[in-house]
Write a structure and sequence with these properties.
Largest sheet: 7 strands, mixed
Radius of gyration: 22 Å
Order of helices and strands: EHEHHHEEEEHEEHHEEHEEHEHHEEHHH
Strand content: 15-25%
Number of strands: 15
Shape: globular
Distance between the termini: 56 Å
Helix content: 25-40%
Number of helices: 14
Length: 457
């Protein structure tokens, strides 16, 4: 690619912040709330016009990973979000009464307001439509300021501590932190473009075949075997009622997507919208509940499962997961299964299996913990190697690829975000060195805010 040299210029500088959080998904919302709650002057930068990331802009229809099969373990701010959702969705009340571990469906408009109130109520400042454009370093190689891109043009912002909640680890990677990306050959989990279908006949849905791929009469099976729907090529399909007669779908895969490449993501969004329309048409053709259904929304964000994993002072591994390991510096517990979605070729082979073979494959391939079991996520997974004043939270924390399949879900992202925001505030009050944060103090403070840390003395 040709290069272009920028002319020398002076940018306006906003250096009034203790903590700057980049990315307003679950991790970023929790990080900004936790930092501001400690009195840190906190700025949250979000590239879109809303907070919430995949739960709002991405239309993921429910939270998962909140419990260990016996109790809720994603607590603190994560539990606040859970209750705020459940308390304002009347159609969930009976389900919650009967199933106290129920993971709530997501009304995206409600969730936007929940995050708005949580973040601003703690005292953080939000800047929408503000993207990270560059990281400027000081003479010692540490981030000195970040350059943001907005309707105001280019603006430099400086803080004592930065928290990278971009999902892709942009800030940390651009600042020079080492990272891994995808599998050994660079292949990444497929994405999904979530969508919403309304005017669904709920009585017919209850009587008809399940949409889930384990039902041989599912319209997904039929569509996959039909020439009418060329973009429906495999079985991934999950859905959840998000409002009366309205269902959110996490269905289908868009393969070979790299969210750090704008051209790749743009092509995936174009394909995803076409795919969502084909799913609606296939459901209408093969299930009476969808005869008059309407595709009412597709996500403005692509459902990206994997890009960079920033290498920190500790790399959480699948062996840690399997051992249900605890750590002296753990900042949360997690119990979600190892969920690494298959490549295009692997999905093609999977779709050749019979239903009994599929059930047996799922039983052996998906590693799950037993009820009551969980594993710890250490603070050291949030501290990038070589960067003194940067923390990471959310799906870009330091793990191997298998453990990543467990911690990337939204409930855990809320937990790592809260820990990172609190640690950032603590570091900003002293040396700005995130590696020097007293983790005993951090854990004690997290527990005072409701975190589930059963090994805290």
């Amino acid at each position: 690619m040709a290069t272009y040299r920028l002319s020398n210029r002076t940018l306006p500088l906003d250096d009034s912040w203790d903590v700057i959080v980049v990315g307003g998904g679950p991790a970023g919302c929790a990080a900004a709330t936790a930092a501001a709650r400690e009195g840190a002057r906190t700025l949250l930068l979000e590239a879109t016009g809303m907070l919430g990331g995949m739960g709002t802009a991405g239309l993921v229809p429910w939270f998962c990973g909140y419990d260990d099969g016996e109790k809720i373990i994603a607590r603190g701010l994560a539990e606040y979000v859970r209750h705020a959702l459940m308390d304002h969705l009347p159609h969930l009340r009976q389900i919650v009464a009967e199933h106290p571990l129920f993971s709530p469906s997501i009304d995206p408009e409600l969730l936007k307001r929940i995050y708005d109130d949580m973040v601003t109520g703690a005292g953080a400042t939000v800047r929408f439509h503000a993207s990270l454009g560059a990281v400027e370093k000081s003479t010692d190689g540490m981030p000195d300021a970040i350059v943001t891109v907005s309707k105001s043009g280019l603006t430099a912002c400086r803080a004592k501590v930065y928290v990278d909640c971009t999902g892709d680890g942009d800030l940390a990677a651009w600042a020079g932190a080492p990272f891994e990306k995808g599998d050994k050959s660079g292949g990444m989990q497929p994405a999904t473009h979530c969508f919403v279908i309304s005017n669904v006949d709920e009585e017919a849905l209850a009587k008809g075949p399940r949409i889930h791929f384990y039902d041989p009469d599912s319209p997904v099976w039929k569509a996959m075997r039909s020439d009418k729907y060329p973009l429906i090529v495999e079985l991934h399909s999950c859905n959840r009622k998000i409002a009366p007669r309205t269902f959110g779908f996490n269905a289908g895969h868009v393969f070979d997507v790299d969210n750090t490449d704008p051209a790749s993501t743009s092509n995936a969004l174009l394909q995803g919208r076409r795919m969502a329309a084909q799913y609606r048409d296939a459901f209408a053709a093969y299930h009476p509940a969808f005869a008059d259904a309407v595709l009412t929304a597709t996500g403005s964000l692509l459902g990206v499962r994997e890009t960079r994993r920033i290498l920190g002072d500790y790399v959480l591994t699948v062996q840690d997961y399997e051992a249900r390991r605890s750590f002296p510096d753990e900042i949360c517990r997690n119990a979600y299964g190892i969920d690494v979605h298959l490549s295009r070729k692997e999905n093609e082979e999977l779709c050749k299996k019979s239903l009994p073979e599929l059930k047996e494959w799922n039983r052996t391939a998906v590693k799950s913990l037993k009820p009551g079991e969980s594993f710890g996520v250490p603070y050291r997974c949030l501290t990038p190697q070589g960067l003194r004043n940067v923390l990471v939270a959310g799906r870009c924390i330091s793990t191997d690829r298998q453990a990543y399949g467990s911690v990337r879900i939204m409930a855990c992202c809320l937990n790592t975000g809260e820990a990172a925001g609190l640690a950032a505030a603590m570091a900003a009050q002293s040396s700005s060195d995130v590696h020097a944060v007293n983790t005993n103090d951090l854990r004690t403070k997290l527990q005072s805010y409701g975190a589930y840390l059963p090994n805290l003395a």
